[in-house]
Design brief:
This protein is mainly α and 180 residues long. The protein contains 8 helices and no strands.
């Protein structure tokens, strides 16, 4: 989780350093509070469930050769769906983007998180038409080619070859701690 917090801090630092348009990180305190609210919420909720879905569906069985019990996978996917509903109803609502009418760091962080379960074969946008339309707006705002390039590695996760046993042994403690 720490690396994600640093990533958010770096993202916000870049918005200040390069004097980006105001909608990226608004000067208006109320608008900025909406961005900050999402960024504070996502790293313990959406990020966790998206990452767990990827690892439970693909990385454990394919990369590490470890099967996930069906009840654990079902609980993971139920948690993901609950967080998708919360994302849609609490943050997106009827807005074009998560915090208003313009894209913000909240949207960039959210789309990145949601691509993790997509890379694991989860159809997170099916049954969530508002989120599907939001995804299209986010990808259009950043550019479809850039969006595709940014997510190409995670979208190929299910094609990962099995891990070398030595690498698997080294990875397991950190991976288990990360997804709990």
């Amino acid at each position: 989780m720490c690396s994600r917090l640093y990533s958010v801090a770096i993202l916000l630092y870049l918005t200040h350093k390069y004097k980006v348009p105001d909608y990226w990180y608004p000067q208006d305190l109320q608008a900025r509070a909406h961005v900050d609210e999402y960024l504070a919420w996502q790293h313990t909720t959406l990020r966790r469930s998206c990452l767990r879905a990827l690892w439970h569906k693909v990385m454990f069985p394919v990369f590490l050769g470890e099967q996930i019990p069906p009840d654990v996978l079902a609980a993971t996917l139920a948690e993901l769906d609950a967080n998708l509903q919360l994302l849609e109803h609490k943050f997106l609502q009827d807005k074009a983007f998560l915090t208003g009418s313009h894209i913000s760091p909240a949207d960039l962080v959210a789309i990145t998180e949601l691509i993790h379960p997509v890379g694991g074969g989860c159809q997170v946008f099916e049954g969530h038409p508002k989120l599907a339309a939001w995804r299209q707006r986010v990808e259009a705002a950043v550019g479809e080619n850039l969006s595709r390039e940014a997510h190409q590695v995670i979208l190929k996760a299910k094609d990962s070859p099995p891990a070398n046993p030595i690498i698997k042994q080294k990875l397991m403690p950190g991976v288990l701690a990360m997804i709990r």
